[in-house]
Amino acid sequence: MTAETDIKSASSKMQATTVWTLVLGFAADPLARWSWPDSDQYLTIMPQFVKACGGRAFEHGTAYVTGGVRAAALWLPPGVGQDEEALDAIMARSLRPEITEAMAQIRLGMAEHHPPEPHWYLPLIAADPNWVGHGLGRLLMEHALKRCDWEGTTAYLESSNPENVPFYERHGFKVIGEIQHGDSPSLTPMLRTAH
């Protein structure tokens, strides 16, 4: 592998760049943009959302980047959850009143689909849109799933973009349901048992 495709654990110095790579990568995501349709609001809220969803990966050395931080994946190890308190606060202050109930139901659906056994959770993976199609997401996914297989641990995610479901299926994830409420885009929970 070249230096451009090495997988690294993002250091604290790389955290801001890693977060912004994910913000760029989700800029056209159906659920993210349904939540925050105005670009100024999206650019203000999404970095906070990324940190609340997956920021604990930085503390555990499981925030992975590749291609000079052109792509990133935040994996939460077994027993490590999202910062629900921060997510509650973000939702309370940023969502339009007409979607508040739908988002509450989506979050309940997410909690219901998480496997009960210890598992690795992937809340966020994305590439800078300039670098989509260069295989960086595949490298990040293969890197993390090797660890899941070595440990014999299940991996879980929710795809917020239906176009990405085949990518996850190629890596062994299976659709286990659908989460949708009101006029929200659908979220697809997916599970992968260790190979």
Automatic annotation (TrEMBL):
The record's InterPro entries line, in alphabetical order, gives: Acyl_CoA_acyltransferase (IPR016181), GNAT_dom (IPR000182), Trichothecene_AcTrans (IPR052523)
Task: Tell me which domain of life the UniProt entry assigns to the organism this sequence originates from.
Answer: Bacteria
Any one GO MF annotation of this record: acyltransferase activity, transferring groups other than amino-acyl groups
Mention any Pfam family matching this sequence.
Acetyltransf_10
Q: Give start and end of each N-acetyltransferase domain.
A: 109-195
Q: Does the keyword Transferase apply?
A: yes
What keywords sit in the KW lines?
Answer: Transferase
Q: What is this protein called?
A: Acetyltransferase (GNAT) family protein
* Provenance organism: Bradyrhizobium stylosanthis
